[in-house]
Amino acid sequence: MDNATITRPTVLILLGPPGAGKGTQARMLEEDFGLVQLSTGDLLRAAVAAGTEAGQQAKAVMEAGGLVSDDIVLAILKDRMAEPDTARGVILDGFPRTAGQAEALDGLLDGAGMKVTSVISLEVDDAAMIARVAGRHTCAGCGEGYHDAFKLPATAGVCDRCGGTAFKRRADDNAETAGARLTAYHAQTAPLIAYYEGRGVLERIDAMDDIAAVRDSLSRIVQTVTR
Ligand code: AMP
Questions:
Q1: Which SS3 state, helix, strand or coil, does residue 137 take?
Q2: Is there a catalytic annotation at residue 27?
């Protein structure tokens, strides 16, 4: 994909429950289109690891599979959006997750002369999501994603991408917490599908397909909406 095809600031939102493939696909879009992946989950995990005040407040909520308060998430997002690498465009992965966050995002983008380019809903079956989440892990070195059943490295224990041999699993990627995260998604995030549909910026993708097929569908949408 030729990065030069994107000529104006692009804001893509990937919507979908935990395990839908938002992170995996956002990383691919980053490679394919030169956009910057912005995952509030990653930013919050970094804040927890760094022991910041926001991180300390978020930790227990994240471990229980609930949603961190809008105030904390918005402050973290705003700081990240102020960094210059986001000027060309971002792929928001895991944000917005509430109506309040969606409204705040509009305000933030407005101030920067930007708006939401497209919202892509990754549509999946709930039951399959728990299995997907429970088996996943990432390379500790480069962050490449793997899954015990669906995507193992070509050589056991060696990352395909960077050759690293250490892997990690998220504390909240277990069946019980995944269930709570799914419940939070349906209660607070899924209503955003109708919200963005009403604004005429929603696209839907069958995300039960394999990773490569979903990547193709997404690429087609991104090419169209950034034209
Ligand atoms: P994720 O990596 O997107 O699955 O997020 C992991 C956890 O971080 C979620 O279960 C929430 O506790 C928290 N989190 C991430 N993004 C948000 C958000 N936009 N609003 C509230 N909580 C969030």
A1: strand
A2: no
Classify 134 as helix, strand or coil: helix
Residue 191: both structure tokens together: 């209503």
User: To test the ligand 1 pocket, which listed residue (61, 68, 93) has its Cβ within 8 A of the most ligand atoms?
Assistant: 68
The mean pLDDT of 95-108, rounded to a whole number, is 97
Three-state secondary structure call for residue 147: strand
The CA distance from 217 to 97, in Å, is 23
User: Using omega within 30 degrees of 0 as the cis cutoff, is the peptide bond preceding 96 cis?
Assistant: yes
Per-residue pLDDT band for 6 (boundaries 50, 70, 90) equals low
Q: Are 76 and 44 in contact (CB under 8 A)?
A: yes
Mean pLDDT, rounded, for 200-225? 94
Take residue 112 and report the two structure tokens written for it: 């920067």
Is 40 a pocket residue for ligand 1 (Cβ < 6 Å)? yes
Tokens matching residue 1: 């994909």
